[in-house]
Amino acid sequence: MLNSNSLLKVVFASVLLVITILSCTQQPKKTDTATAKEQTKPITVQMAKMTVGGMVCSACQSNVKKAINSLAGVIHVEVSLENKTAFFSYDPLKVKLEQIQKAVNDKGYTANKPQAVKQ
Question: How many Å apart are CA 65 and CA 74, to the nearest integer?
Fold first, then answer.
């Protein structure tokens, strides 16, 4: 048989459990509204071309591609070692062309000013 101290602990634990369950089920989900707002924003994608000096091998080509791809807002990158160019699509609301150029220059290559490409 339970003594009064043990009975009090069981009741307290039960009440605590009920309060926890009720508080979890009554909280509004903030992520659902944020996701809905984000989905209604149109994504503006632009394309640009940039010449890159200093690439001499496929590892260089890969490094330039990784540098550009590492930026938030860059959607797709193609780098041509033969033509010494990088073509990329990006969201101008998230990343600026100057940031992309700087990312490549910071890796030790010579990136010229990116030029917009007509779609």
Answer: 11
d(CA 67, CA 104): 6
Q: Which two tokens stand for residue 24?
A: 């979890």
Instruction: Please state, in angstroms and rounded to a whole number, the distance separating the CA atoms of residues 22 and 107.
Output: 54
- Residue 88 Cα distances to 1, 18, 31, 73, angstroms: 75, 55, 31, 11
Q: How far is Cα 96 from Cα 12, in angstroms, rounded to an integer?
A: 58
64: enclosing H helix or E strand: helix 58-69
Query: What is the Cα gyration radius of the chain?
Result: 27
The string of pLDDT tens digits covering residues 34-83 is 555 555 667 789 999 999 999 999 999 999 999 999 999 999 999 999 99
The predicted model scores a pTM of: 0.64
Number of C-beta neighbours around residue 80 at 10 A: 13
Distance of alpha carbon 25 from alpha carbon 7, whole angstroms: 28
DSSP state letter for 61: H
Q: Which residue has the tokens 């940031």?
A: 99
